[in-house]
Amino acid sequence: MMRPLEKVLVEEISHAPGGSIPFIRFMELALYHPLWGYYQQERPKWGKHGDYYTSPMVGDVFGSVMSGVLETMHRSFCGKGSWAIVEFGGGDGRWAEQLLEGLRETAVFSSLTYVMVERSADHRRRQRERLARFGSKIMWTQRPEPVLNSVPCVVLSNELIDAFPVHRLRKENGHWCEIHVSWDERRRLHEVTRPITDPALFWYVEKWRESWPDGTETEVNTRAREWLNQVAVSLREGFVVTFDYGGREEEVRGPHRPEGTIRCYSRHHAHRRLYDAPGESDITADVNFDDLMRWGKKAGLETVWYGPQSRFLVAAGILRLLTEHHDPDPFSASARRNRAIRHLVLSEGMGERFRVLIQAKGVQFDELAEVLHAGE
């Protein structure tokens, strides 16, 4: 029996020119369809019973360390009064909870407003339940621009950009084509290629024309550019902090990644069965941080720091949270905290796979840069 989202896809494909839709449109519907999209459904997505873990779920140390960084960032605002943290895509609100708890006893808390920008109704409900005790300290909005251009802000995202729908390109017979999704006579979704028509992709096509062999696939995240440009233009002064998995251009694109980085996550396992059950698995692609830095510069953002999450957390003082203990219980508070720290910073955990990019606009960031570059 055809699933509801498959019916939506087939209907759209049947009315599309050439009987196919760009992969970016397929991914948009698979993740964000108002009723059947993966992120819109009321089902566990994170943690033990979900499909993946995020850094805040490993333990509250992630939020504790970031709270200290936020205090340093606040000093860059030179005591200008009210300020805001604007978090995009806050999941179940766990990171916001950790940050607010970490800042609660500091001098910067009283002047802070925490703004959540979340398109999923299910996620907003979970956030409101988790964060209810903070009352009016938190606000939800779909239009953060008035906040961004009125007070100094720190814009936060953790695993946001990897969930933006992407274009997928494939090189065939010496030419780059765009991957589309069609519906065949065996009642299956499948891939076809079509000529590239989106002007936003032409720059990449020219750049890669000669260097990559036929059959190579890759992704272009134009939605990330649109999002970052909107944030940068709206931001009067402050920082943009991005946590995500990915890397530099040479790490995420090229002949050594012949199938690109697109994949699904389901029950903590990665797979590439993109069309088996749309809406039932997360779909994601690695973030190209060179793109973010280049786009940010054009939009007025200056790169303060980029590197692996492990180096960021160590520079920010996470190792000071390690505690010596002799409790044989592996589930004691000290043992669990030490284990969380190791998972966040070691290469076999999240330390190397996740990267951190900090960009700034209209603020002095010498103190922050000195802290993060110490020991390099």
Concise description?
With 376 residues, the chain is of the alpha/beta class. Helices cover 34% and strands 23% of the residues.
CATH topology of the domain at 37-163 and 221-253 and 283-373: Rossmann fold
The CATH architecture name of the domain at 37-163 and 221-253 and 283-373 reads 3-Layer(aba) Sandwich
The largest pleated sheet is described as: 8 strands, mixed
Query: Mean pLDDT, as a whole number?
Result: 90
Which overall shape is indicated by the principal axes computed on the Cα atoms? Answer: globular
Q: Return Rg in Å.
A: 21 Å
Q: Would you report the number of β strands?
A: 16
Low-confidence stretches: none
The proportion of residues in beta strands is 15-25%
Give me the number of helical elements: 14
Q: Report how far the terminal alpha carbons are from each other.
A: 57 Å
Encode the helix/strand succession as letters: HEHHHEHEHEHEEEEHEHEHEEEEHEHHEH
Helix content: 25-40%
Structural class: alpha/beta
CATH class of the domain at 37-163 and 221-253 and 283-373: Alpha Beta
Describe it.
The protein has 376 residues and is of the alpha/beta class. It has a domain at 37-163 and 221-253 and 283-373: 3-Layer(aba) Sandwich (Rossmann fold), CATH 3.40.50.12710. It is built from 14 helices and 16 strands. Strands 2, 3, 4, 5, 10, 14, 15 and 16 form an 8-stranded mixed beta sheet that branches. Strands 1, 6, 7, 8 and 9 form a 5-stranded antiparallel beta sheet that branches. α9 packs parallel to α11 (289-298). The radius of gyration is 21 Å and the shape is globular. The termini are far apart. The model has no long low-confidence stretch (mean pLDDT 90).
